[in-house]
Write a structure and sequence with these properties.
elongated, Rossmann fold, eight-stranded mixed beta sheet, N-utilizing Substance Protein B Homolog, Chain A, alpha/beta
Length: about 425
Amino acid sequence: MVRTPRSNFTPSETGGPVEIQGLATRLAALRLIDAVVRRGASLDQAAPPLLRPVPRADDRALAMAIAQEVLRWLVDLDRLIDSAMRQPLPDDAKARTVLRMMLVQVLRLELPPHAVIATGLPLLTGGPRRLAHGVFSAILGKGEATLPAAPSLPAPVMLRWGDRATQIAAGLAEPPPLDLTLADPNATAAWAEQLGGISLLPGHVRLARGQAVESLPGFAAGAWWVQDLAATIPARLVGAAPFPGARALDLCAAPGGKTLQLASAGWAVTALDKSARRLERLTENLLRTGLSADVIAADVLTWQPDRGFDAILIDAPCSATGTARRHPDVLHRQPALAELTELQAALLARAAAWLNPGGTLVYAVCSLETVEGEDQAKAFAGTPVPVTSAELPVGIVPSAEGWLRTDPGMLAEVGGLDGFFAARWRG
């Protein structure tokens, strides 16, 4: 094992000579990981400025893949590193993060060790550089360096998820496949055949990940949009418009997948979101698909409609822990659950007052936290409309209370799905 030197090193912030091919990509990945682990940022927030110095799209994708896989396997990578040292590195040491990156490139991305060394060690200088080389060589030199079948979860996450943690972790080992929602569910079989995918529900096609979305047949024509299978279920629970001109309100609508679903199901949709910037993507997809909705940038807590709605879908702001397959950074950020649950309860109470008699109210969160899902449904005083198995993919069953609960460990044999909770009531 390699012994950690007692002296403290101050690693170079520039990471060495930028003329080394691939170094700028690794430096960007290093900064992305640092933004999540040390500053608590999300990868989505950190990526635009940190990837800007990397000119090539494929290099930016590699930087993001390195950061995502390090965050996905962080606990297990640290165990490997610590197993080769007598004196552990601090959790936030730059040498530890560089070692995580080097190991994940070999063990997950299957890059050759010599290339990993050539682009990893220049991120460090002096003692940490020699230390990292020694630890990396010691781990790989054993010939037994492997990661488990499923990533180990951080301790706070294990505590929150309890008995569900093992099943959820099993669904986090790989990034998700590509799910498409069709504007015309009647064309499901035709699109599945043309795209070479499978369908798990009418109006859904699943493809292998890594597809160039904009080059796929049907994109330019607006025949479909990208949306995780689990994310489609809340709008499916609203159902088709019961009569011409029936009004549906999509609260917290951006980026717009549920708005598109409701519009394609015949609803006259009002799509409301606080973020005008995020609504731009929704508007672009409406134009591409030829669907229509009244798009409003406003805060639901202060906005007031001029009349009621026949259906209301609340995709509430939440911890987003259910998206950990594609956003493993959520595993390492402490969610503000008390603040979020207070907001969710306020949204439910406010929206319920706008529902027409006999209308449908659906509450959903892409969260694995019971306080954001089951606890909110228990506390809400409404007339429940239980979810039925016929509304769900084969293999997913409603809870005893008639609620939807999915997690990434479900449907693993066909690629899994995000974690979601949804409940439904009638006005």
